[in-house]
From TrEMBL:
Residues 40-52 have a biased composition (Polar residues). One of its GO terms (molecular function) is S-adenosylmethionine-dependent methyltransferase activity. This is GH17917. It comes from the Eukaryota. Residues 15-25 have a biased composition (Basic and acidic residues).
């Protein structure tokens, strides 16, 4: 079960700092021509390429450049929803920032206690002796193992259950950085491809707190304690840290969690209502990136670097912090966020109006009521939202009464579509009907109706903010079909529904199953979403549709 909030690191996908973008634009512009020519195209697969008169397939996209985006991808022709644009394996992969210990081979959680299996050579915890990632490029490679084996004594204290949380996290954060350093020694071409990525080093250097953080936790540590000074100079290490913050994707299926750099997918520009969706293959960690809706020729291909179901203030702060630009997209510029109103508050003064940002592209601008004179400073607004968010984070995602209580408590404070209420509703959509005590056959009709209502509320907003063939839509449509079906059957049995009304609902169930099956079967085989897609297709067949 998951909640759709709570960004944890800077990775694209599924976190802050202040800088202008001018310096970046100038630097970017200078190097762009050379970088564009060198851009690796080989592993990028365009499918369903129509042929031109000369019988040459038209590539789905090309690399373009603008002063605002830097390099980005643009559609070469009209693309239909669901076209596979990029399928490529990582250039580099490793544990996420701030992660709990994971197996270095497959990125599944591990413990640091004495029971945990460990690599016999370097002593790092692994999931087991048969982990598929042992001696693999995308896992615990021989080069990495040798490097750690040489520093076994240095790492011994941290790789135990006695280590503090901070010590463990700092150590796991180093893994991917060290892997990139090793690429420099063992795979020059891959290393060169990574070094061509944007690092925003000049802007990062101007942020003293950020720079010092990496200077102490990464640069000095690797050069002095780990004795890697002869492999990478200080600036090179800072650049690698910047490249990771700006370009990493957060991936993982079935409990695994990793961050990755891909050879081409990093080029997509950001938009808070993107036109592509991506997933990753659990077997190869490859990214599969598709159009989520129809894209017109010349349209930039975009993905979201932030959580789409967060309010503008938070999304923009997150993006600026990690990617060092202030998003100016259509959604960010609209106080109503494309009609979703997912940041609006109930006016605490007149209780009738809605409080929204007066100038959403200015982070410090006041928020104001649309009915009375009530105003709220952005700082006060943020404090309030943070407090409510903390309340929500305290709640276990399986605790139905606590989640219901959260909705009741904040009904008078947040508008119904506020993203924090939606987040609680999303958890409820997933657990009503699925956990002990709330399985569908034992649920009251009122609780089943609640599940249906929350699913509909959530889907309405996802349709606006994450439209098309997106995983979130597929998942929620699958959740929605069940309460409609059960309530239709109950209504028919009790005589409360006419046959015509019953058939209308069954038709809606069939459409939900069909759409969710289509979306979720785009997910890679082996993922839980793919299995849900198969279940949806199966249910559809059983319905005779
Ligand atoms: C993952 S990289 C994308 C590739 C990058 N444009 C390049 O040339 O290497 C992310 C960086 O691209 C730029 N960028 C992406 N989307 C943007 C947007 N919507 N507005 C402004 N800059 C954007 C920012 O500099 C950001 O830090």
């Amino acid at each position: 079960m998951s909640r759709v909030s709570g960004a944890k690191d800077w990775s694209i996908g599924p976190s802050e700092r202040e800088r202008g973008i001018e310096a970046r634009q100038n630097r970017h512009h200078k190097h762009h021509k050379q970088q564009q020519q060198q851009q690796p195209q080989s592993k990028t697969n365009s499918v369903a390429q129509p042929e031109t008169e000369t019988n040459k397939p038209v590539p789905a996209y090309r690399v373009a450049h603008s002063d605002v985006f830097g390099r980005y991808l643009v559609a070469n022709r009209r693309l239909e929803a669901g076209e596979l644009l990029i399928s490529e394996e990582p250039l580099a992969i490793g544990p996420c920032v701030s992660c709990e210990p994971v197996c270095l081979g497959c990125y599944q959680p591990v413990q640091l206690d004495s029971q945990q299996y460990r690599c016999p050579d370097c002593n790092w915890p692994l999931c087991g002796p048969t982990c598929r990632g042992i001696r693999q490029r995308t896992g615990h490679s021989a080069e990495e193992c040798a490097l750690y084996a040489e520093r076994r004594a240095l790492l011994a204290d941290v790789l135990t259950a006695n280590a503090t949380l901070e010590q463990r996290r700092d150590l796991y954060e180093l893994v991917l950085i060290v892997r990139i350093v090793l690429l420099k020694q063992h795979s020059a071409e891959q290393y060169a491809n990574i070094r061509r990525m944007e690092s925003h080093t000049a802007e990062r250097r101007e942020n003293a707190t950020l720079w010092q953080h990496y200077e102490q936790k990464v640069v000095q540590r690797l050069r002095n304690d780990w004795q890697l000074a002869n492999v990478c100079d200080e600036l090179e290490l800072h650049e690698i840290c910047g490249i990771l913050d700006v370009n990493c994707f957060e991936i993982g299926q079935r409990g695994a969690k990793a961050r990755t750099l891909y050879p081409s997918a990093f080029l997509l520009a950001h938009d808070c209502t993107p036109n592509t969706a991506h997933t990753d293959d659990p077997a190869t960690f490859a990214i599969l990136l598709r159009t989520s809706r129809r894209v017109l020729e010349q349209e930039p291909l975009t993905l979201s670097y932030a959580y789409t179901l967060q309010g503008t203030l938070k999304r923009r702060t997150f993006i600026q912090g990690g990617k060092l630009f202030w998003c100016q997209c259509q959604r960010c510029a609209d106080p109503r966020e494309l009609g979703s109103d997912c940041s609006a508050l109930v006016c605490r003064s007149c209780r009738l109006g809605s409080i929204r940002a007066t100038a959403p592209l200015e982070q410090t601008a006041d928020w104001a009521c649309d009915r009375c004179d009530c105003r709220l400073s952005a700082a006060d607004l943020e404090r309030l939202i943070d407090r409510i968010n903390d309340d929500l984070e305290e709640i276990d995602v399986h605790d139905i009464p606590a989640l219901e209580n959260f909705l009741t408590r904040y009904r008078e404070v947040l508008r119904p579509n506020h993203y924090l209420l939606l987040s609680a509703k999303y958890s409820l959509c997933q657990i009503y009907g699925r956990i002990e005590g709330y399985l569908l056959p034992e649920m009251s009709p009122q609780d089943i109706e609640r599940k249906e209502r929350y699913c509909r509320d959530f889907l309405e907003i996802v349709d606006l903010l994450d439209p098309g063939l997106t995983r979130l839509r597929g998942l929620i449509m699958y959740e929605l079909h069940a309460p409609i079906m059960v309530l239709a059957q109950l209504g028919m049995q009790s005589g409360q529904l006419t046959r015509q009304e019953f058939l209308k609902r069954i038709k809606e169930v069939a459409k939900l199953l069909k759409d969710s099956a289509r979306i979720l079967q785009l997910e890679p085989p082996g993922s839980s979403e793919h299995e849900m897609g198969l279940a949806a297709a199966d249910a559809l067949t059983k319905m005779g549709s």
